[in-house]
Amino acid sequence: MKTISLITIIGTCFAAASFADDASPMLKGEAIARAIRDELRLLDAATDQVGIEGNFPTGTTVSPDQLRPHMRADIRLNLAFSNSAGFSDLLGHAYGPFVINERPHVPRATFDALKKFVSDDFWKPYTPK
Length: 129
Description:
With 129 residues, the protein is mainly α. It has one domain (25-123). It contains 4 helices and 2 strands, in the order H-E-H-H-E-H. A two-stranded antiparallel ribbon has the order 1-2. The longest helix has 53 residues, at 2-54. It is globular.
């Protein structure tokens, strides 16, 4: 009886490990997509804040340098900031442009790369143009 229970437990562990290996790329892709969506929310809020504080009219394009002071210094976006390229996502694609009263968009290349992991609706309201 004890041998059967042990074999059952070992088989269950192997099955779970096998499932985890199969699901791992999917979970990783979803995690990357969630992180990018969170960054888009931060960029959206920073753009709004720049517009309010600067009293900029709708449609004004603001630079990444104007957004940086409105985000925590220790977040990945600021740590990975490049003076030449501005902000880029976890896959290396550039965010922008940043326009007052317009939401930022997920870069098209990122959208396409993560399509197999998340639905198109996942990106709303940041879907690419």
